[in-house]
Amino acid sequence: MGSKKLIQDPQQIESILSTARFLRLALSDAENPYIVPMSFGYKKNAIYLHSSQKGRKIEILKKNPRICFEAAAETELIIADDPCNYNVRYRSVIGFGQAKFLEAYNEKVDGLTVLSEHYGKKGPFEFEEWKVNRLCVIRIEIEKMTGKESGF
């Protein structure tokens, strides 16, 4: 097993984001941190998320659009005879950025397309306008990302 290692190669970091199934979005309001797992899409240094237009996450983002996210891929628990020797094999990315609520219909469709393609669907897609208008689509402009791996 290798030790924890910083990943600096942008292509490796993008590969992790391309294969991760979910990310954890960390937010902060005036009182407490808040973290929520979400499905996502990644394209051109941006993360795309979708959500209901209401809820704690949306209220926090309206007050403070600064976020942190974490996505992991190739995770595996390694069990040993001695519980003190258990380990985890993983590749992960942590990033920081700003959330922007997409308002224009075409921008929302573009974000939903990135999300759909992340999970293996191939476009073009036809989204019903009334459904798109009900959703909140968020683009995270990534300012900084780092990667880490263990067990490779």
TrEMBL record:
<dbReference type="InterPro" id="IPR012349">
    <property type="entry name" value="Split_barrel_FMN-bd"/>
</dbReference>
<protein>
    <submittedName>
        <fullName>Pyridoxamine 5'-phosphate oxidase family protein</fullName>
    </submittedName>
</protein>
<dbReference type="Pfam" id="PF12900">
    <property type="entry name" value="Pyridox_ox_2"/>
</dbReference>
<dbReference type="InterPro" id="IPR024747">
    <property type="entry name" value="Pyridox_Oxase-rel"/>
</dbReference>
